[in-house]
């Protein structure tokens, strides 16, 4: 699980906007870019090329 302090300082690498934790706590979502950044082994993968586009 991601610590609250880390979540507060993380930003979308594409737009530098705020990201929020998914309901399942398995990723971070940027609403502006409509991208999902996965969390693997408690590490957020904040690479644009690894992000999934949301519908």
Structural write-up:
Helices cover 11% and strands 29% of the residues. It is mainly β. It has a single domain (4-53), classed as N-terminal domain of TfIIb (Single Sheet), CATH 2.20.25.10. Strands 1, 2, 3, 4 and 5 form a 5-stranded antiparallel beta sheet that branches. The longest helix has 6 residues, at 4-9. It starts with a helix and ends with a strand. The model has no long low-confidence stretch (mean pLDDT 94).
Task: Return the CATH class.
Answer: Mainly Beta
Tell me the fraction of residues in β-strands, as a range: 25-35%
Task: Write down the Rg.
Answer: 10 Å
User: Termini, distance in Å?
Assistant: 25 Å
Total domain count: 1
> Can you write the helix and strand succession as a string?
HEEEEE
Estimated helix fraction: 10-25%
Q: Would you report the number of β strands?
A: 5
Please give the count of helices: 1
Kindly identify the CATH topology.
Answer: N-terminal domain of TfIIb
- Quaternary structure of the protein: single chain
CATH architecture: Single Sheet
Shape: globular
Biggest sheet record: 5 strands, antiparallel
């Amino acid at each position: 699980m991601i610590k609250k302090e880390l979540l507060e300082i993380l930003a979308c690498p594409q737009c530098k906007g705020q990201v929020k934790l998914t309901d399942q706590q398995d990723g971070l979502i940027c609403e502006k870019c409509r991208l999902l950044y996965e969390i693997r082994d408690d590490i957020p993968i904040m690479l644009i090329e690894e992000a999934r586009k949301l519908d």
